[in-house]
Design goal:
With 298 residues, the chain is mainly β. The chain is built from two helices and 14 strands, in the order H-E-E-E-E-E-E-E-E-E-E-E-E-E-E-H. Helix 1 crosses helix 2. It starts with 53 loop residues before the first helix and ends with a helix.
Length: 298
């Protein structure tokens, strides 16, 4: 059932700091209404990254990358339920406790959960309520497993325990993938808006276009970008990924550039005018960056 998957995804989304991820994007909830999280007032478009906030900006970048990438993990885990049950709609037990249910109408699948305690992308999560709609899914089976190569997904009032508190997710995205071998694919996630509401504040991700390299054991962001607007950010930021580097760029072209070779040890640079102004390094699970990630989720 939900959580018993053949494809495991990781990379920036889950490997970079598993310690603070009780779960990230729990889009497949159940039992709640279909009302999206409340919109907040527009945030300032102008932004500036400084020597005092570039660490917090890097933490926001990590949280954003995880949430976007986790879309694929959750959709994959949910759709595995339909594959394992041979398309017989109904309610089924989750891996540890709670239930996941789904209905099918034509080419549309709607998944709901009731306090579903399970594994998603190798991380144990509690999916409290809400729903995930998957439209027109296309599955390609290989000798080693399967890949969901196309789908439209919509998250409605999805509630999940994220770093010890409840977050609510709403929005829509399109998933597509090109299978390159029995065990690998290249996947793209695009979307106009994803909203995560937490503690009365909302993080909004727009202009989403993220590409990942997928295998049966990993899903690593290789390229892409999105726009972040959050009360936690110093204005609107453009986030981009290239290989193992995450870059946040403000409207004045100041930047916070986070690089890693192993998704654990990092080098972080504060850059203005193309010149490095400050550099820090450390382990993402301890020290000042770990603390900044915790602040990003408050």
């Amino acid at each position: 059932m939900l959580g018993e998957r053949r494809v495991t995804r990781c990379g920036w989304a889950s490997n970079f700091s598993v310690v603070i991820l009780v779960s990230v994007l729990a889009a497949c909830g159940g039992g709640g209404s279909d009302t999206p999280p409340p919109q907040t007032s527009p945030l300032p478009q102008s932004s500036s990254i400084t020597s005092t906030n570039y660490l917090d900006v890097a933490a926001l970048s990590i949280v954003a990358a995880r949430r976007i990438q986790f879309i694929a993990d959750v959709v994959d885990a949910a759709f595995e339920t339909a594959l394992q049950t041979n398309g017989v709609a109904g309610t089924y037990p989750c891996l540890y406790s709670g239930t996941v249910g789904y209905t099918q109408s034509g080419s549309t699948y709607t998944f709901t959960v009731n306090n579903c305690d399970t594994l998603v992308g190798g991380t144990r999560v509690l999916l409290q309520s809400g729903s995930l709609r998957v439209d027109s899914p296309v599955v390609q089976t290989t000798s080693a497993g399967y890949f969901l190569t196309a789908a439209g997904v919509t998250f409605n009032n999805a509630r999940v325990v994220e770093a010890g508190a409840t977050s609510t997710f709403g929005g829509a995205a399109s998933l597509s993938a090109i299978v390159t071998s029995a065990t690998t694919a290249t996947s793209t996630t695009t979307g106009t808006s994803l909203i995560v509401e937490r503690a009365g504040r909302a993080d909004t991700y727009t202009n989403i276009n993220v590409t990942t390299n997928v295998s049966l054991s990993s899903n690593v962001v290789s390229a892409g970008s999105l726009t972040l607007s959050s009360p936690r950010a110093p204005g609107t930021l453009t986030l981009s990924a290239s290989g193992t580097t995450l870059t946040a760029t403000a409207s004045d072209n100041s930047q916070s550039i986070l690089s890693t070779t192993d998704y654990l040890n990092y080098v972080l640079q504060f850059v203005t005018g193309g010149t490095v102004q400050a550099t820090t390094n450390g382990n993402v699970n301890t020290g000042e960056l770990a603390q900044a990630i915790s602040r990003a989720l408050q």
